[in-house]
């Protein structure tokens, strides 16, 4: 007679028994090359300015930017994404298209500093540069004018390409923005400059600390152009649209509350899919860790791993350089 089994025959715990086994069967790995660091550069600043809602993150001076680039390159991360904080803002965001505007100046500095070590990328959106804080220009009734904004994006794209940006991140959520900027670049000898379309960017509360970081004067919200957090299918549609307009990479943003949208995009997109772990996601983990409520390093690693597991090929995160240091 065969003896009755003394317990389960299927035992998933076998492969969890030792660190070496766990490492060998890990399905997802973090690597410095898959991380991108967002960097703020403030015009006219004499010293780096701390951002109170993002402990550990600063508005760089053009001088301290160089060190940030060097540190990022030494850590082996894949790239940096530059945001400009201009001294003067106006209705059309003139600073964005000025070759001597802070973002374009910072781009030239970062490109010179980075060499071949990482990819220097730029945020292509007007909100940092407009006095009303919207991502586009306004019409006579104060609404964001989609097609007039596309004209500004075309010029902004040209200014960024001329400054040497190696990947333009279109984050404004205007309809047709990828096609418009692609057309402008192709017509001006910049056909080889790639575009990152912030395809599925949601109107999120998690951008809160970023508003301090770029000293945004926005009143109201961006719900007429960014996606409704309720909508998953609409995220997939925006991904498809950006791909069809010629996006070389597409983005889902924020990350942690939109992992379903990210998984959909990863399954359907023919181009790389990135995710942006935004300022509020950073602030939440930093704040809880500062209280001693969660283990900071484990929470950071787990959060970025989860975003990768859901399907992101690369992750924009304010911890990029520090996290890469732990991974070495
Ligand atoms: C728009 C832009 C925003 C962020 C990146 N690009 C703000 C917004 O859309 O309101 C937010 C990033 C973050 O919160 O970390 N240029």
UniProtKB/TrEMBL annotation:
InterPro entries xref list: ALAD, ALAD_AS, Aldolase_TIM
Pathway the protein acts in: Porphyrin-containing compound metabolism; protoporphyrin-IX biosynthesis; coproporphyrinogen-III from 5-aminolevulinate: step 1/4
First-level EC class: lyase
GO molecular function: porphobilinogen synthase activity
Catalytically driven reaction(s): 2 5-aminolevulinate = porphobilinogen + 2 H2O + H(+)
SMART domains linked: ALAD
Enzyme Commission (EC) number: 4.2.1.24
Pfam families: ALAD
Keyword annotations of the record: Heme biosynthesis, Lyase, Porphyrin biosynthesis
Quaternary structure note: Homooctamer.
Family per similarity comment: Belongs to the ALAD family.
Alphabetized NCBIfam families for the sequence: PRK09283.1 (NF006762)
Functional summary from the UniProt entry: Catalyzes an early step in the biosynthesis of tetrapyrroles. Binds two molecules of 5-aminolevulinate per subunit, each at a distinct site, and catalyzes their condensation to form porphobilinogen.
Protein name (record): Delta-aminolevulinic acid dehydratase
Organism name: Microbacterium insulae
Origin organism lineage: Bacteria, Bacillati, Actinomycetota, Actinomycetes, Micrococcales
């Amino acid at each position: 007679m065969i003896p009755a089994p003394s317990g389960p025959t299927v035992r998933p715990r076998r492969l969890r028994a030792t660190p070496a086994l766990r490492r060998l069967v890990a399905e997802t790995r973090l690597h410095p090359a898959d991380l991108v660091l967002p960097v703020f550069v403030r015009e006219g600043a004499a010293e780096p300015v701390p951002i109170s809602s993002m402990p550990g993150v600063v508005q760089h001076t053009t001088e301290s930017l160089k060190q940030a680039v060097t540190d990022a390159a030494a850590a082996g991360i894949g790239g940096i994404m530059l945001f400009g904080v201009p001294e003067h803002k106006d209705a059309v965001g003139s600073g964005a298209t000025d070759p001597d505007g802070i973002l374009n100046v910072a781009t030239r500095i970062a490109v010179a500093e980075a060499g071949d070590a990482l990819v220097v990328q730029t945020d292509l959106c007007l909100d940092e540069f407009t006095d009303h804080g919207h991502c586009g220009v306004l019409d006579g009734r104060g609404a964001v004018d989609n097609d007039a904004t596309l004209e500004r994006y075309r010029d902004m794209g040209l200014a960024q390409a001329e400054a040497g940006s190696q990947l333009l991140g279109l984050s404004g959520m205007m309809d047709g923005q990828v096609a418009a900027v692609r057309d402008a670049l192709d017509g001006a000898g910049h056909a080889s400059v790639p575009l990152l379309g912030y395809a599925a960017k949601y109107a999120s509360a998690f951008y809160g600390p970023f508003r301090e970081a770029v000293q945004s004067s926005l009143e109201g919200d961006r719900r007429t152009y960014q996606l409704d957090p309720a909508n998953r299918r609409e995220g997939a549609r925006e991904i498809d649209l950006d791909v069809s307009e010629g996006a070389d990479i597409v983005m889902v943003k924020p990350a942690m509350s939109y992992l379903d949208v990210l998984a959909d995009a990863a399954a359907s997109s023919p181009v790389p899919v990135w995710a942006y772990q935004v300022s509020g996601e950073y602030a939440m983990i930093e704040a809880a860790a500062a209280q001693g409520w969660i283990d900071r390093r484990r929470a950071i690693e787990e959060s970025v791993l989860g975003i990768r597991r859901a399907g992101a090929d690369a992750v924009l995160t304010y911890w990029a350089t520090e996290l890469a240091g732990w991974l070495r």
